[in-house]
């Protein structure tokens, strides 16, 4: 009877079946996202940290976002891929709870960072003729970043209450180990207060997720960017020769913020679709289809974390220039540059 609990895991790559090609595709895509995400986010953090003239509040916000994106890609992506290939959670119930928590917290960090960037860009456009340059002291910068992190982490805490790891027998049961699934299910062992909190959050999760992590950053970025663009056009009409370069850089940064918001919205849409289908149409959709959609939505979130620094390197001239130097000398940004900070 004990031997029934000593079953072997199924090898996703052998023998070759239709599922094998899917396993290779997941592995290749995950490897690409992991490589780009680690290199891009580390490069972005290095550029901001090692160059005093890149330490504006906007660049500090972007470096903070890069740090969080690095954490999510480096720690969560391998665990998600491992589960997809083996149908087993590497760290058991801990990974079942912590991965959704970190993913939702990542959405919160991105949401609040986009809002903070929009506010800072509006201030910069409003003062562009005075050569706006917000290189703040470390106390002020740390306080702003702490608000973003604490807010995102606290808002994501209910995710830890609504997850459980369940084990299901596979078909045929003697071939592989029982399949472990991480499901939304509130434990009855929780204290009454936490149990009620979990029930309330679970009931409102769909629309809270959609409103806070999709509508808020999207609408806020649209209206703020339009107001900022109006200020930039006004500054262009009244500009003198010395301020034209600064106005151009402010316009680039405003476009970069809009591009980040578009990328974020595009990558979050699959997660919202998955939540809607799971809530209202789960009975009519095969479980495997929902699992594939959930995997795609997770990979899109990881893709957002990997592509964000690439967008900045392509759209922002100071980042592009310093990244080019970084490729030839990892300490290029130690030398002060007298170009505009943004």
TrEMBL record:
Top-level taxonomic group: Eukaryota
Keyword Disulfide bond: yes
Domain G-protein coupled receptors family 1 profile: 40-312
GO cellular component annotations of the record: cell projection; plasma membrane; receptor complex
Signal sequence, start to end: none
Keywords: Cell membrane, Cell projection, Disulfide bond, G-protein coupled receptor, Glycoprotein, Membrane, Receptor, Signal, Transducer, Transmembrane, Transmembrane helix, Ubl conjugation
A Pfam family that the UniProt record links to this protein: 7tm_1
Transmembrane segments annotated in the record for this chain: 21-49, 61-81, 101-122, 143-162, 206-232
Annotated GO MF terms: G protein-coupled peptide receptor activity; prosaposin receptor activity
Coiled-coil blocks: none
InterPro entries, per the entry: GPCR_Rhodpsn, GPCR_Rhodpsn_7TM, GPR37_orph
Keyword Hydrolase tagged: no
GO BP terms in the entry: adenylate cyclase-inhibiting G protein-coupled receptor signaling pathway; positive regulation of MAPK cascade
Membrane-protein topology: Multi-pass membrane protein
Compartments, as annotated in UniProt: Cell membrane; Cell projection
Stored PANTHER family: PROSAPOSIN RECEPTOR GPR37, PROSAPOSIN RECEPTOR GPR37 FAMILY MEMBER
Protein name: G-protein coupled receptors family 1 profile domain-containing protein
Originating species: Periophthalmus magnuspinnatus
């Amino acid at each position: 009877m004990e031997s029934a609990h000593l079953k072997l895991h199924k090898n996703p790559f052998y023998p070759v079946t239709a599922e094998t090609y899917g396993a290779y595709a997941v592995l290749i895509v995950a490897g690409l996202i992991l490589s780009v995400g680690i290199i891009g986010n580390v490069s972005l953090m290095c550029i901001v940290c090692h160059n005093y003239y890149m330490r504006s509040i906007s660049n500090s916000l972007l470096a903070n976002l890069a740090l969080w994106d690095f954490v999510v890609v480096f720690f969560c992506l391998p665990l998600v891929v491992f589960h997809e290939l083996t149908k087993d959670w590497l760290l058991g119930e801990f990974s079942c709870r912590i991965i959704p928590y970190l993913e939702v917290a990542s959405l919160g960090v991105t949401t609040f960072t986009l809002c903070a960037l929009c506010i800072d860009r509006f201030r910069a456009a409003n003062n562009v003729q005075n050569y706006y340059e917000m290189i703040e002291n470390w106390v002020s910068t740390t306080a702003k970043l702490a608000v973003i992190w604490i807010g995102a982490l606290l808002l994501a805490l209910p995710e830890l209450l609504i997850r459980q790891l369940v084990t299901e027998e596979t078909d045929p049961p003697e071939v592989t180990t029982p399949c472990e699934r991480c499901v939304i299910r509130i434990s009855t062992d929780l204290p009454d207060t936490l149990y009620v909190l979990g029930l309330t959050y679970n009931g409102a999760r769909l629309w809270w997720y959609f409103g806070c992590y999709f509508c808020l950053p999207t609408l806020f970025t649209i209206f703020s960017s339009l107001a900022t663009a109006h200020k930039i056009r006004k500054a262009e009409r009244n500009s003198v020769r010395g301020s034209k370069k600064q106005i151009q850089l402010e316009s680039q940064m405003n476009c970069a913020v809009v591009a980040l918001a578009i990328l974020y919205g595009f990558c979050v849409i699959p997660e919202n679709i998955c939540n809607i289908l799971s809530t209202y149409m789960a009975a009519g959709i095969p479980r495997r289809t929902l699992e594939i959609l959930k995997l795609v939505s997770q990979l899109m979130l990881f893709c957002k974390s990997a592509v964000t620094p690439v967008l900045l390197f392509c759209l922002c001239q100071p980042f592009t220039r310093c990244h080019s130097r970084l490729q030839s000398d990892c300490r290029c940004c130690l030398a002060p540059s007298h170009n505009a900070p943004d």
